[in-house]
Amino acid sequence: MAKFKRGKQSFIPPIQPVITTWASVAGKKEGEGPLAKSFDIVSQDTYFGQSTWEQGEKKLQQLALETLAKKAGLEQSQFDLVYSGDLLNQCIGSSFSLRNMGIPHLGLYGACSTMAESLLLAAMTVGGGYADHVVAMTSSHFASSERQYRFPLGYGGQRTPTAQWTVTGSGAALVCAEGSGPQIENCTIGTVRDLGIKDANNMGAAMAPAAFETVRAHFDDLGCAPEDFDLIVTGDLGQLGKEMLLELARRNGMSLGGKLTDCGTLVFDNTMQDVHAGGSGCGCSAITLCGDLLNKLNSGKLKRILFCGTGALLSPTSTQQGLPIPGVCHAVSIISGRN
Amino acid sequence: MAKFKRGKQSFIPPIQPVITTWASVAGKKEGEGPLAKSFDIVSQDTYFGQSTWEQGEKKLQQLALETLAKKAGLEQSQFDLVYSGDLLNQCIGSSFSLRNMGIPHLGLYGACSTMAESLLLAAMTVGGGYADHVVAMTSSHFASSERQYRFPLGYGGQRTPTAQWTVTGSGAALVCAEGSGPQIENCTIGTVRDLGIKDANNMGAAMAPAAFETVRAHFDDLGCAPEDFDLIVTGDLGQLGKEMLLELARRNGMSLGGKLTDCGTLVFDNTMQDVHAGGSGCGCSAITLCGDLLNKLNSGKLKRILFCGTGALLSPTSTQQGLPIPGVCHAVSIISGRN
Fold first, then answer.
1. Do A242 and A156 reside in the same domain of the chain?
2. What CA–CA distances, in Å, run from A115 to A112, A174, A292, B12?
3. Cα B217 to the chain's mean position, in Å?
4. A221 in the same domain as A196
5. Which of B71, B135, B255, B303 has the maximal Cβ count within 10 Å?
6. What is the model's pTM?
7. With an 8 Å Cβ cutoff, are A2 and B106 in contact?
8. Which residues of A touch B5 (CB under 8 A)?
9. Is B152 domain-assigned?
10. Are residues A212 and A273 in the same domain?
11. Phi, psi (5° rounding) for residue A281?
């Protein structure tokens, strides 16, 4: 039985897709963090000029797409297709942002793995010769997430030490058949892993097993190893999940030490910004990739990274029903455009 | 600027994908409707042996996938990839159904357009030579939907005449690079349309403009017309939305009369089963396609259909905030395997 072109879960696009342009929009707190200079827009207004947080999140995506078009020197109508999704119920951040824009849209739900999921689907689309200008985009918003998943913000609930802070931000990447910029070498599609973690305030632990399985599948399928990468970047396991992934790898005879980093630990200064176990949300890996990481790949400061988007596939309903939290992780190998 | 291989929104897979196998699982009410004989499984138990409706919906997808594997003569582990999504918050029907199965999974959110969205992505994946056995799947459940989107069932709320009845069911299709069965000719990806309809109990009206735009884009991109098809099947506009689509087409000089039907009007006997404007939910077009329609394409009774999945991209939050309902529609042209 034929499986994926390369191994069990991985594929190599026939045409190597180029990420020619990327854009990031961040909130106030993210703009005070260590990656501040890499964002295209930092807003001091949590509502982004809208009347609700949900519409603010829609505006985040609209700003990211506008900025992406401007940086690419294109009209938005020249985008062939937008793959996007978010954390809001029924993904209204994504669908409302594209209302009446006339841009073909395929909606995704991969929780916080959405940046990687959209990027790999964009690579599949462009790499298969289907279209030449495909956007991968996602967002999250601290305030809209908190009230949907946890408590009303006004309630002032105490956060547990394992909790992560949902990033307010949106990232968008333009994947093209031609042009200059970092290139997508290959992609690994994750499976849904569930080891029984039930604590919705410890999503890093719930996602770490999925991250490990996908990284292992990537290495097996593509015949590579941690030393082939400058960085293996998960997003967003947070501090605790990252340690669990390191431990899982160690127990399985794989050394990730020195190579592993996590968007949840990069986006905030975890000691100064009081975010407990780090950042989270679709926007976390999105603004880290579509800013700092792609900038460094473009300049040649990074030569090759494995970008591993991790998602916790829970809902408040499943949590309230006492069910565990399934996790998923998709990996995209990106190389520098410069030799 | 290059757009999609074929026109603005459409693509033709380089390898013509074959739908070799399909499976459908339906609830009690659907099993009393006109399509009863086309379903592989009809359950009299609304919970499908589970303790909650949400877990019942998970079980629906598990039954559909099991049945699909059995009919295809494969182990489930031989599926290369499952594209799936559902209406539940955070798509827990899909993610929980695939827990620890070891099958690569990409999660989608396209509301009731998900059967078409997953099918076109499966066609893109197989048609691009990325994988050989890709599953497109979705589900919906009347009871889990009602309490999430509207009222607790026990409340006994009166339904408006324009309301549709969410189908309890799951459909799955296996898209392959080789084999016999109906074939996917080409696909058209929809854009998000919003003409300002705000009545969450009249989703047919909200989706009809998106359906019209996608059907028109399909004809323009592929150079075809209504008379080239045996049926143009939307799903799920319901009775009212179907009439609006006919009217929209008429006003734009396109005659769909005689060709147009809608899964929402096929799945129930609207006069006998008290479903008001017809069926809805991701499962509506899924069980209609993965039963009656593919059976008829396979036998040669239908030669060519345009399957148009329609989705209302609302959430209870957006509705409560007074926002209109954006719609989307994706189209897949399917031809009979027999000449």
1. no
2. 7, 12, 15, 26
3. 19
4. yes
5. B135
6. 0.98
7. no
8. 129-131
9. yes
10. yes
11. 95, 155
